[in-house]
């Protein structure tokens, strides 16, 4: 018990916040702070503090619920990843606007991985980065149209958001396409080691990928993956299988290409496309029939064997699209074949 107390005392002495800086209104105006933009020019509104843990550093500094976190280390606060990084760091500078409207800048010295004790109201403070693709099989297009009126019964709004945000990929395993990343985004991913990321590859052949993503400027996915992997980022890849577009020889090519990137590409999930009755018929999308599904499983077997032989892992993750209600699905039951990999499509 005594030892525990001593440890606590030592930690207290070491971790206490150094000072509350005098640099408040003098060097930066409140308006200037609120107009802060991130490194790619997007405005940031900061994060509202929902809760402060009792006895935490934030509590000792007098940061109160209702305060707004504006910057960390003089960078506009965009997302919860920065807060996690701050928790892991030994020294940080935190710009806060207290509930009374007073801006404060705290220079904090603490133990690494000691949390600040701040719980915030969201994860992406500058909004979610939207998808710029037009996949013919997009799941959002397959949702019922939202009805209007006070008695309208709708699915929840967030289902209709087409996100393509690398931060959600890192935080929650959302699949991203790497078609909307700016240089600054790549730089941040690499600098902060935001790994692993889940990537919807769909096809490694550029022309086929253009059809799958409905966008002419999708770039060379192999080059982009190689760049990320060379910089220490691990990838879990996904192929949404659409009969007549990226199956057959295209599937063989995609899987073979991705296997050349192992272990940087840790796994590949092959997911048969899911279609609902709301899918616009003029797009001509087809589901994977049970006999086709059996054929695809046979087609993937040699790849899996090759992966097992050369690298000792199954590599391929064959799974069923979550859009298929389990009771109605007559396709052969695909099985998961590798651990620690996502099992749901975007
Ligand atoms: S990437 Fe996802 S959200 Fe974007 S269009 Fe394709 S399926 Fe829809």
What structural class do the secondary elements suggest?
alpha/beta
**Helical region count?**
10
Fraction of residues in β-strands: 15-25%
- Average pLDDT level: 82
Q: Report the helical percentage.
A: 25-40%
Beta strands, count: 12
The CATH topology annotation of the largest domain reads as TIM Barrel
Q: Sheet with the most strands? A: 7 strands, antiparallel
Under CATH at level 1, the class of the largest domain stands as Alpha Beta
Model description:
By secondary structure, the chain is an alpha/beta fold. It folds into two domains: 12-120, Roll (Pdz3 Domain); 140-339, TIM Barrel, CATH 3.20.20. It has ten helices and twelve strands. The strands form two sheets. Strands 1, 2, 3, 4, 5, 6 and 7 form a seven-stranded antiparallel β-sheet that branches. Strands 8-9-10-11-12 form a five-stranded parallel β-sheet. A hairpin with a 5-residue loop joins strand 5 and strand 6. Helix 9 packs parallel to helix 10. The longest helix is centred in the last third of the chain and has 22 residues, at 290-311. The N and C termini lie far apart (49 Å). Mean pLDDT is 82; it is low at 1-31 and 321-346. The site of iron/sulfur cluster has 11 residues, from loops.
In short:
The protein is of the alpha/beta class and 346 residues long. It is 29% helix and 16% strand.
Lay out the secondary structure.
Elements lengths: L1 H14 L3 E2 L9 H5 L12 E6 L4 H4 L7 E5 L2 E2 L3 H9 L2 E7 L5 E7 L8 E3 L45 H7 L2 E2 L6 H9 L5 E4 L5 H8 L7 H10 L4 E7 L7 H11 L5 E8 L17 H22 L4 E3 L28
Parallel strand pairs: 8-9, 9-10, 10-11, 11-12
Antiparallel strand pairs: 1-6, 2-3, 2-7, 3-4, 3-5, 5-6
Helix pairs in contact: 9-10
This protein binds iron/sulfur cluster.
The site of iron/sulfur cluster has 11 residues, from loops.
């Amino acid at each position: 018990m005594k030892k525990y107390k001593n440890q606590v005392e030592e930690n207290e002495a070491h971790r206490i916040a150094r000072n509350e800086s005098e640099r408040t209104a003098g060097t930066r105006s409140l308006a200037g702070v609120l107009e802060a933009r991130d490194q790619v020019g997007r405005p940031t509104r900061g994060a509202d503090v929902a809760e402060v843990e009792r006895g935490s550093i934030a509590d000792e500094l007098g940061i109160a619920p209702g305060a707004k976190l504006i910057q960390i280390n003089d960078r506009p606060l965009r997302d919860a990843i920065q807060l996690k990084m701050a928790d892991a760091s030994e020294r940080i500078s935190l710009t806060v606007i207290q509930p009374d409207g007073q801006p404060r800048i705290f220079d904090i010295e603490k133990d690494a991985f000691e949390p600040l004790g701040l719980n915030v109201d969201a994860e992406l403070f500058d909004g979610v980065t939207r998808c710029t693709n037009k996949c013919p099989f997009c799941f959002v297009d397959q949702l019922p149209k939202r009805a209007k009126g006070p008695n309208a019964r709708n699915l929840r709004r967030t289902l209709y958001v087409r996100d393509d945000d690398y931060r959600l990929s890192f935080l929650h395993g959302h699949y991203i396409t790497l078609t909307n990343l700016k240089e600054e985004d790549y730089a941040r991913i690499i600098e902060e080691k935001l790994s692993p990321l889940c990537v919807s590859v769909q096809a490694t052949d550029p022309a086929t990928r253009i059809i799958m993503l409905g966008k002419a400027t999708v770039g060379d996915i192999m080059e982009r993956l190689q760049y990320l992997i060379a910089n220490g980022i691990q990838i879990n890849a996904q192929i949404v299988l659409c009969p007549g577009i990226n199956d057959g020889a295209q599937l063989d090519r995609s899987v073979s290409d991705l296997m050349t990137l192992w272990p940087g590409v840790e796994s590949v999930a092959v997911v048969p496309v899911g279609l609902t009755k709301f899918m616009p018929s003029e797009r001509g999308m087809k589901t994977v029939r049970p006999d086709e599904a059996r054929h695809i499983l046979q087609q993937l077997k040699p790849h899996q064997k090759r992966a097992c032989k050369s690298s000792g892992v199954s590599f391929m993750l064959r799974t069923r699209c979550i859009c298929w209600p389990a009771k109605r699905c007559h396709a052969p039951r695909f099985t998961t074949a590798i651990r620690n990999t996502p099992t749901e499509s975007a």
